[in-house]
Write a structure and sequence with these properties.
5 helices, mainly alpha, about 0% strand
């Protein structure tokens, strides 16, 4: 075998090796894009299911069925956890494709969680709030009690509506934030607190 033949054979071998390397790189990139597509599909399905659950929550809030709300929140937690696992895979794929570091996506979308506490709600008045007014007749006492009862009812309805609106809003934001797991987790935690507060107003 001449030197020229050897050189040509070595060149062909190197070329073949290079082509195989390129083909393998293309396959890796294709698998990465397929994985991102899978993550996108899972996120889309989870958000669709989440919006359906949010609609069911709205019905429970309108009918004041407080016993059914925790199950809805459980479903949302499960959906969020499923997406969170998938988004971890997405981060790894992005790191392969673009060198993007873990946590970059979440860092760009720091969760903003609206809060609602008992202190934010109007206080329900009681008979102990009354001044030292002296009533001249039983009719005066009855009218005072009636007015207090109406005021208590009105404020209770306001508290129920405020907490229901907050819970509905937080859940809606959580579903929209499924793709940013830290935000979804924080919002669903607030939804649990809001559920407890709303339930205390309904009971």
């Amino acid at each position: 075998m001449t030197e020229a033949t050897k050189a040509a054979k070595a060149y062909a071998t190197d070329l073949d090796r290079g082509l195989r390397s390129v083909e393998e790189a293309v396959r890796v990139v294709q698998r990465a894009h397929d994985e991102i597509a899978r993550c996108d599909q899972l996120l889309s399905r989870a958000q669709e299911s989440g919006r359906k659950a949010a609609g069911e929550l709205g019905v429970l809030l309108r009918t004041r069925n407080h016993t059914g709300v925790p199950a809805i929140l459980d479903r949302l937690d499960a959906l969020a956890a499923q997406v969170a696992r998938s988004e971890t895979d997405r981060v790894l794929v992005r790191r392969i494709l673009h060198g993007e570091a873990d946590g970059v996506a979440d860092a760009r979308h720091a969760p903003v969680v609206p809060r609602l506490t008992e202190q934010d709600l109007p206080r329900i008045p009681s008979v102990y709030d009354a001044d030292d007014t002296q009533y001249e007749t039983l009719q005066d006492v009855w009218e005072s009690d009636h007015a207090l009862t109406e005021e208590q009812y009105g404020i209770t309805q306001q508290r129920i509506q405020t907490t229901a609106d907050h819970l509905r809003m937080v859940v809606s934001r959580a579903v929209d934030s499924f793709g940013t797991p830290s935000a979804a987790e924080a919002l669903l935690a607030e939804a649990r607190r809001a559920c407890t507060l709303w339930t205390s107003c309904v009971r």
